[in-house]
Amino acid sequence: MENEKKIPSWFIYFFGSFGGILFGYDIGVMTGALPFLKIDWASAMSNASLVGWVTSGVTFGAIFGGAIAGQLADRLGRRRMILYSAVIFCIFSLLSGFAPNNGTMYLIIVRCFLGLAVGAASALVPPYMAELAPARLRGRMNGLNQTMIVSGMLISYIMDYVFKGLPVSWGWRVMLAFAAVPAIILFFGVLKLPESPRFLVNHGQNDEARKVLSYVRDNDNEIDSELSDIKKTASAENAAANKSVSYASLFTGKYRYLVIAGVGVAAFQQFQGANAIFYYIPLIVESALKINASDALIWSVLQGVILVVGALLYMIIAEKFKRRTLIMTGGTIMAISFLIPAIVNKITGTEHPILLLVFLCIYVFFYAFTWAPLTWVIVGEMFPLAVRGKAAGLASSFNWIGSFVVGLLFPIMTASLPQEAVFAIFGVICIFGVIFVKFRVPETKGISLEEIEAKNVKE
């Protein structure tokens, strides 16, 4: 078997999760570009709704990108769809940098198309990583995906900070166009990646699936055992579904329990308000400390560092705690972090901007090693093989719907409500997220995808 190992496992895991860089960069890049865009296009960007649309245009496109990619991935393969996503991302990143002066609608439309690639990456990477990683390492490998996402965000924050000294009229353009660089790296890295072994088995390519497993498993016994499990699951699912599963059937008795759990977690991750911080932290700091948003970009870098530290912490503890324990603990602390500033302000009758910013940092840290990575671990682990592509795409779409709504409404909400009150609303949603996990999400730690399916799919 050794003579077949031509692709190192580290290379597969690294570039298999590198799509997270694209995901993360475009989440973060507008954070720094927006203050300069508002200066450059002062008249066109004076409306809070337009600010929301320019910022959240990517997430609007991602709603559809996740669903489309999930459906096509079941027919064309995870690897090929990741390649297509990298190409689309590169093209529309460059087009963003060439936006005509005051071309608000142009930028919104281009960023919507860019969102197709971002949504595809968010839907494709978790199942791909889950289908390659052994059960004992699956949480940690998906933690690698989250580390890539937050590293992409940190890179975008750093690039924003580096480019802030450029002339206003093209500094923000360079920030947006620079996203093409990681897209190009991803494309050439994925060219050498294998297809998912579960996809190969589901399409009758058993020998190729065994070869792929040899890259990422330790011995022949482990390979033979897992290949046998995959074949049995694929055979049963294909017989039941005839390889044709509609979106409506995702919510039938057979699949409903797991689909609701995975989609619900994906939606709650965004409705809890994390992206309000990541998109608008300079504007949040501007409002809190009464300084120019362009001078608050160092706070974006701080948030990025906290995210990376949290993601690395998750990789250390991923296999030491149950999924539900981590995500419920994180959600509880996140809720408290949002609620305390509002409660203190209500009791004292005065604003405490530093208190708000400190608790936002606490929120980001706990989010970074609980809800941020575990959402995609659960999405990658939860769904049966016959519906995994469609269900993962649906979960990704609901996640992006939440991100879009938060990105669009946050500037509108803060225009009419104190920031502390807006974050308190998100804190209440965090509490509902914890309750949902407690009663609707099964534990998946250390269990093979086939065992999860056999245990939880209701006949």
Give a quick set of tags describing it.
transmembrane helix; 79% helix; MFS_dom; mainly alpha; disordered N terminus; transmembrane; Growth Hormone, Chain: A; carbohydrate:proton symporter activity; 459 residues; single chain; MFS_trans_sf
Can you characterise this structure?
The protein is mainly α. The chain has a single domain (9-456), classed as Up-down Bundle (Growth Hormone, Chain: A), CATH 1.20.1250. It contains 20 helices and no strands. Helix 5 (104-132) packs across helix 17 and helix 10 (206-216) packs across helix 11 (220-241). The two termini are 39 Å apart. The relative contact order is 0.16. Residues 1-5 have low confidence and may be disordered. It is a multi-pass membrane protein. This is D-arabinose H(+) symporter. It is found in: Cell membrane. InterPro entries: MFS_dom, MFS_sugar_transport-like, MFS_Sugar_Transporters, MFS_trans_sf, Sugar/inositol_transpt, Sugar_transporter_CS. It holds the Pfam family Sugar_tr.
Summed up:
By secondary structure, the protein is mainly α. Helix content is 79%, strand content 0%. Helix 6 runs antiparallel to helix 7 and helix 6 packs antiparallel against helix 14.
Q: Provide a count of the helices.
A: 20
Q: Outline, from the CA principal axes?
A: globular
Secondary structure tally: strands: 0
Report the sheet-strand fraction: under 5%
At the fold tier of CATH, the topology name is: Growth Hormone, Chain: A
Largest sheet: none
Structural class by helix and strand composition: mainly alpha
CATH architecture: Up-down Bundle
CATH top level is: Mainly Alpha
Measured as a percent range, the helix fraction is over 70%
Question: Which residue ranges are poorly predicted, with pLDDT under 50 across at least 5 consecutive positions?
Answer: 1-5
CATH H level, superfamily name: MFS general substrate transporter like domains
Average pLDDT reading = 85
The helix/strand order is HHHHHHHHHHHHHHHHHHHH
Rounded to the nearest angstrom, the distance between the terminal CA atoms is 39 Å
* Estimated radius of gyration: 22 Å
Tell me the count of domains: 1
